[in-house]
Every structure is written in C-alpha cells, then in structure tokens.
Specification:
heterodimer; A: about 300 residues; alpha/beta; seven-stranded mixed sheet; five-stranded antiparallel sheet; 12 strands; B: about 280 residues; seven-stranded parallel sheet; about 40% helix; about 25% strand; elongated
Amino acid sequence: MSLAGTPSSATHRALLHDGPDDLARRVAPELAAALDRGEPLHVSLTHDEWAVLGDELGSLTRQATYVPANERYLNPGRAMAELHRFVMQSMDAGAAAIWSVGSVPIDGDPVRDARWARYESAVDHLLADTPFWGICAYDRVRSPEAVIDSVRRCHTHVDDPHLGIRPCDDHQPYDHRDAPWPHRPSAPHLELWDTEPSTVRHELTSLCSRVLGPERLDDLKLVATELITNGMRHGDRPVGLQAWLADRGVVIEVWDNGPGIDDPYADLRPHRGGVDGGHGMWLVGQLSDQVSIGREDGRTVVTAVLQPSV
Amino acid sequence: MRSTGVVDSARGLGRHDHLCWGYEHHQDFRDEALVFVDEGLRQGQRILYTGENDLAGLRAELDGIVGLERLVDDGAVHLVPLLATYEAVHAHEDQAQVYAAATRDAIRAGYTGLRTVADATVLVLDPTARDTFVRYEHRIDRLMAGGLPFSAMCGYDRHRLGDAAVGEIGCVHPLIHDASTAFQVHAHDGGATLRLAGDVDAWHEVAVEHAFRRTFAAADSGRGVVVDCADLGFTHHRALEAMHRAARAAHVQVCVVHATPTVAAMVDLLHLDTLRVDTT
C-alpha cells in the first residue's frame, strides 16, 4: 500500500524498523520525492539514524530541517511546540504537504515511555486538519512490547516490515487511566485540600528541596500554582493537591470537582498568542517532564511529573 | 539602605524609609506615629505631621511628645491640616516637589532631613483621586530612594477604604504594615530601578497591572525601566503579562534583573517582547 499524494488531513504513521539501515531504506524514497517536490521536511532522529538516512538523501538533506532527537524530545511540550511551529510556518509559506520524521526516546521505563504515547495521540489530535505527513520511527528490537502495542493504537497507520503500511485497526487515543502510575499505590507524601497556592508552594518547598534543585523547584511551584489556580477558577471545590517523591523526581496530582477540562491535550496545544492570560496549561506542559489530564471517580485530575533536569 | 518588607512596628526606621500603615483603629496608627515622630526628632529630622484634624486636633494627636509646644514654636514640628498640605495633589503631579523643597528647607535650617506622618485616607476615597495619589506616592518614593533625606509614614483607614484600596496604595511602598497586599512595586537603587517583591498570584493580575502602569508612568521618557526581582518570591504568568501590557502602554522597554530561570523561561515562552531578562 502506498500513501503517496497530498492528504486533506494528517497522516501519522508509526514505522517499526530493525535499525538505522532499515529505517533509511524504507523512508528515503518517499522523503526524497517529497524534497524533490519542494515540500518541507523536519527531521528529529538520533545521530546514527540521521547519518544513514542523510547518505541516502544525498544533497537533498540541505533542504531538510534537522533538530537532533536528544534536543527536540526533551519533553512532550517542547517537542510539540517545535513540530507545531514548523507545520504552521510551512503552511503560512504555502506548503501543500509537510513532512516530519522523528524517533522519540524510548528507554524502557514504562512511566517515561507512556508520555510519548500521549504525545503521539496529541499529534493525531492537534494536527488532524493539516496536510501533515508524520513518520514516527520505532526500533522493534529496542522498544518494549508495551510501547509497540501502544504505538499501534495512537497512529493513523502502522508500517510493519512484514505487513507493509496499514491503517491502524485499533486506533485509540491515549487514555489517562491506562497510564502506568507507580506512585499511586503508596500514600502521598503531601496532601492539601482547598489550600492557598502560597501555602502549597511553601509545603512543596519543604518536601521537595532535597529532590529537586532550586531551578526545578521553582518550575514545580509554578506548575502546581497554575494547576491549582485552574482548579479554583474553572473547577469546583474542593481543589486538592497530592505529591509524591518518586525515584526520578516529583509527581503531583491536582484534583477538582468540576466538569473536566474540555481539551485532553490542553498542555500540548500550542501557545495561541496574545498576552491576556490563559496560557497556564501550556506553561505546565513546557516545564513538566510529563503531564496527563483525565477524569477519575467523577473528578478532574491533572498529573504532572518533574524530574531534576528537564 | 532603605528598609523593605512587612513590619509590625514603625520603630527603627531610617532617613529614607517609606511606610504604609493600614489601620483598623486610628488609635493604633497614632501610637505608632508617635514612635515614628519621636525617633525622627532624635535623629535630628524636622517633623511634618498632617491629618484630617484641625490644628488643635493634630496637636492633641501628638500629645505624648515631650516638649511639643517648644518644638512647634521652634519649627522642629510642623502641624498642618491635611487639605492645606495636599491642596495641589489633584491639580498636578508635582506635589512630590513640594516635599522635596520642604526637605531642602529643613536641611538649610540645620535638620538632618524631613520626616512626615500623613493620614491621607480622606484624599483617596474616590477611585480616580486614588489613582492620582498612588502615582504621587511612587514619585515621592523615587525621591526617597534617590537619596533625599525624607522619610514618611502614610496612614490609611481600612474601614473607610476597604482592604483592596489599601492594598492598591500599599503596594507601591517599600514597607507595609498589614497583609493588604501580597506584593510590592517600589523604587530601589537610587530611584532608577523598580523592585518587585513578594508573591504575585493570578488574582493579583489587575492590581499588579495598575501598580506597573502607575510606576512605569514615572519613568523618564525614552529610557528603559529596570525591574529588580531579587525579593520576588513567586510570580504567576499573568503578572508578567500584566507587566508587558503596562510596558506597552507606557512605551517603555523593561529590563528584568535578578529573575529566576523560571521567570526567564516564562518571558521567553510567552513571547513578552517588551521584557528582556538580564541573566548576567
């Protein structure tokens, strides 16, 4: 099956490969054709992957925008901001098709890997109405089975070495309830309900100053304040915060009794311009390593994870 | 070095200090004013004491100052009914220069400076008048921060004004007595810099924008404004957006110094192009 042509809506493909050579062999022809047609291409691969693909593309590589994967995928918020900026600028320039090939960092940690499943769902959601051709490369050998299962659900198509390119039969957006949250079974180290943000910041400082450095602690206080303020303004009381000290940072959950956040990817929806407020969730996404928005037990919950360095 | 922050007493203040004292009961204000006056006299400052009362009433308020009659006769203590002192405030913004001139007069007369106590509640009951008065408060704050040996204790009745109005005025003082404001925007470093201090949450957005608009208005035309965040505990992104809007309205560029990396990140991520964070 070929996907050649100009899409009226986004095509977001997971490409399961067996290493840099396999990846390059399978994507180079259509990327070369796209570049030949003058279509913009954004690349965020590892150094090894890009070295091989670059050889295949030859002089056409000069037309591509390359941001190394380890700089682009610092967190889902930064990664989305970069992709969205590229797509919007390309559309403004009149591009009929916009290409992206990237490989998100999968390291086998189920919590950190889950954030990229949500990111992939958000790409589907936020770029759905754009002429976007996204190719997301996943190494079949190095990616855990759970990751491969999830990428089959959060892309419009899957390119399998044996089966070729097929629409995802089981296309399902990320669900907050499916995320692995290992902190949950244990009691929170801090729990505050209907508490002024200044008090919350004070308590978080006491709890987390040995886990996070001063800069990330400031980020945490901003993230917590933005979430509590949102809960107080748009949700219903009580508004609660729970915090856990985790292996690699701090997890906070902010609860409220409101009807929920309309946009499940509010933290990843790009900055809409203007200076009249309403950018709190976007800042939360930019400064957190991981965010999830959901409904549990009839309440709204936003989970944010902050590690010592973003 | 001027004192800053929240205080529970008017004791121990210096020749350039500027204190806002929101009070529940006038007697509480009067008690602290006596301390402020007494210490000013001990520091060799001339006292200008003003309030709503007539001369006899003002004299009675200072009952307790040893040798008051002689001090008044000698010119060490001036008692001036409020409306006479501030007659010009609503007509023009040069009232601060009146105090500057009075301070120079005091120096020429052999005093170490001028210290004033003013319960200005009646002047700020009206919101429009309050706007003018807050701008004036900042102008005198700049003079004090700039080295003029002039110190002031400003009293405001919380019952008559409400907490929000007292906070609106208090936030441009470097010293505050009560919790009517969580943040301050006051003159600093010779008067050339503004210092943003305290915690600014989302619900302070309107108040902090007012404070920035009023203080930025005093900036020299064509020159930038420096906002020092060394004493800033926390700021919500809405406060930075408010600073940006105020800067745009005043046609000034703001250089933000001593900001945390989180503040710098917000300025960058929100594209607040009137603000420049100096990270050196």
